[in-house]
Amino acid sequence: MGMENYTKYQQGIIKRYYENFDQITWQKLSELVGDLYLAEGKKREKLWQTAATHMEKLGVPKDRVAALLAKKDPALLANLVKELMQKG
Fold first, then answer.
1. Using 50, 70 and 90 to split pLDDT, how confident is the model at 2?
2. CA distance linking residue 71 with residue 52, whole number of Å
């Protein structure tokens, strides 16, 4: 399915989404930090899995993702977000 099936306006939205994909993913990851501090039980586990998915999309090395998931410390995730913010 090519872009020709979309209006010019829709094509622009899609293009901007993919141009800003890293920033969107980084934003979602930063929002998860606060949620992780407050979550408990199964919800917290689900949030960590979501965070892992976002980290992989941002190109964080798998060994670092595994280390963060093993410790499950929101402060360490916050440090990663800060690090990514400085790079971007």
1. confident
2. 13
- Confidence tier at 1 by pLDDT (50, 70, 90): low
Q: How far is CA 46 from CA 18, 39, 84, in A?
A: 26, 10, 22
Element (H, E) at 63: helix 62-71
CA angle 7, 12, 14 (to 5 degrees): 95
Chain-centroid distance, C-alpha 33: 10
Residue 9 φ/ψ, nearest 5 degrees:
-60, -45
Q: Is residue 5 a contact partner of residue 53, using CB atoms and an 8 Å limit?
A: no
| 80 close to 55: Cβ distance less than 8 angstroms | yes
Q: What separation, in Å, do the N-terminal and C-terminal C-alpha atoms of the chain show?
A: 32
Q: Most distant CA pair in the chain: distance in Å?
A: 47
